[in-house]
Sequence to fold (334 residues):
Amino acid sequence: MEEVKQMNQEQNVQVCSYIRRDGTQCPEARFDNSVFCFWHDPQVDKSGKDVKEKLEGKVKRDANCEGYKLEKAELHEVWLTETNFNDAVFRRANLTRSHMFGISLCGADLFKTHLASANLRHANLTRANLIGTILEGAKLANIEWGHKGIVLQEIEADQAHKSGDHQTAKTHYKDAEEVYIALKTHFDGIGQSKMVGLFFYREMIVHRKQLPLFSSPRFFSKLADISCGYGEKVLNILLFSLGVIFFYAFVFGFLGTNSSSGIIKFSLSKGIWGNYETYINVLYMSSITYTTCGYGDITPVTLTGKMCAGSEAFIGAFLMALFVIAVYKTLMDR
Fold:
């Protein structure tokens, strides 16, 4: 690359003005009257039949094709394996059945790009624009999606929201939801339940962010996220279940419960050890109520206590069923 740049300078050839992420300048000669080379000039038509052959030859000589403008390019079955195409533009390009193993498309624009039956195993799609991207039959194993699988549109929406531009944020959230639904549908079709769960979760997050801030739907959506991760997070369900059991144990301790040995209730006269023993007993009652065992050896006393027991049993039955489903989905791909 440095040799090409030096040769261009010796021949007084002006090089492309494109600056890469690492601060280096593209060493290619400028194209006609443009300040960019053939590949970086967005005004040059790349839809010709010879572009595919030229690009494959370029890739063989130099694996750094960062920022290439390849809008509407006809690249059916092209070989672009393990090449840097970060920030490249493939808008509406035809990349069907292309060989893109290990390709880096970080920040690339893949708007309505045809990637049907393309091999994208081990590709990097962090912050790539995937609006309208056609992925039917594409191989998407071991993809690098970026932090928590968050797509570009959600990142842009969060930035717009923080800056106070709520209308732009809402538009980007809708776009992000569209991308997540498309990815979820794709992985569901090939039976990768783990990825289905990931993008379903992100879909629910961006859907919630579109709801009015202090509305009841947004509140219950947030509660569903905290309690069970929308049915996708086993750890959330376990921790929330423990929180419910411990919380209701305190409630039963203050309201009092009935047992064969008398009323079990917190009292200042019992001291620390006595109240600790009381809490162990009401914790036991809370546990069997949550799991709907209901042995009957300890029962609520007041009407309020009975209502609390009923609500805990309802919550427990729901979360235990959700826990079984979440564990099953986690193990489905194994």
